[in-house]
Amino acid sequence: MASPGLEAFFLGEGAGRLFCLLHQPPAARRLIGSLIYLHPFAEEMNKSRRMASLQARALAEAGWMVLQADMRGCGDSAGDFGAATWQAWVDDALSLSDWLAARSGVRPALWGLRAGCLLAAATARARADPGDLLFWQPVLTGKQHLQQFLRLKVAGAMLGESRQGAASTRDLRDKLQAGEAVEVAGYLLAPDLALGLDAATLAPPAAGGRLKWIEVSAAVTPEIAPASRQSIAAWQAAGWQVEVKIVAGAAFWQTQEIEVAPDLIAQTLALTWSAAS
After folding, report:
1. DSSP E strand stretches across the chain
2. Which among 232, 262, 236 has a CA at the least distance from the CA of 249?
3. Residue 59 in contact with residue 23, Cβ under 8 Å?
4. pTM for the whole thing?
C-alpha cells in the first residue's frame, strides 16, 4: 500500500500562525472523512507526539484526512505559551475546522487527547453543527486538571533544598486570580489560560451527535472509572450516541520515557465512523 501524503505548513498570520501537519490518504484510497487532532496540555503534548503521529498515519492509510496542529504558543506555532489563552485555542480549533472542511469537502470530526477533549467539547459547542467527536483518555474537568498541574510546582518546591516559603496550590491559584503569571515545570502559565482551563468542562453540546470514548489502562482487569461513567451518562442524556472502549496500554501522555499503545491505535481504527454513516 502506498504511504499517505504528508504536508507541513503554517496556517494563519502573526500571533495566530499555526504549524500544521496534514496527513492525506493514498491517491487510490477513497476518502472516508476528516479529523482534527487537538493535543493535550503542556508537557503531556510532547509526551504524546509519537502516539498522535502513529495514529494519524494509520488513519490516513485507512482513508481519513487528518490535520494535526500546534495551538498558538505551543510547539512550532507562533507566540509564547505564557501569552496563550483558552479562548484563543478555541478560536484556533474553529479556524482549523473551517479550513479542513474546505480542504476535505466534509465536516471534520474532532479528536481530542486528555485536555484536548475539553477543547474539543468547547469547540463543538461553538460550532453550528457539533459534528462527531473522538475522545482519548478525556480530562473530565479543567479545574481538576489545573490543580494537578499546579501540584507539580508545589512538589518541585518541596523537593528543593529548602521547603521554607513553598507555595501551596491555593497560593498559586490566588496569584492567578490576582492577574499574576506563575511558572510551573518550565511553563509560564498566564492567568487567562489558567482560568480558562479552570472553567472548562466536558459538557456535551445540546444538538447531540456521535462520540467515541476510549480509555487506556495498565490494570489487569481494566474498567472505566466511575467519574467517567457519570460523564458518559450525561452525554447520553443529552442525546449523544456514545461508544465506549477501554484498551490495555501505558499512560503514554505521562510516562518518563516515550511510550506507545498499539491496542489504542487498532481500536481507534475499529471505532472510527464513516462520514456518510
Report:
1. 5-11, 18-24, 33-38, 64-69, 109-113, 133-136, 182-184, 187-189, 210-217, 241-248
2. 262
3. yes
4. 0.93
Say yes or no to pLDDT of 206 above 80.
yes
Number of neighbouring beta carbons within 10 Å of residue 114: 24
Dmax over Cα atoms in the chain, in whole Å?
A: 65
Distance CA 182, CA 110 (A): 30
- Over the stretch 218-231, which tens digit does the pLDDT of each residue have? 888 888 989 999 99
Question: Under DSSP, is residue 37 helix (H, G, I), strand (E, B) or coil?
Answer: strand
For residues 266 and 85, give the distance between their C-alpha atoms in angstroms, rounded to a whole number: 34
Question: How far apart are the C-alpha atoms of 35 and 109, rounded to whole Å?
Answer: 5
Q: How big is the chain by its Cα radius of gyration, in Å?
A: 19
Instruction: Give the residue among 170, 196, 191 at the shortest CA–CA distance from 181.
Output: 191
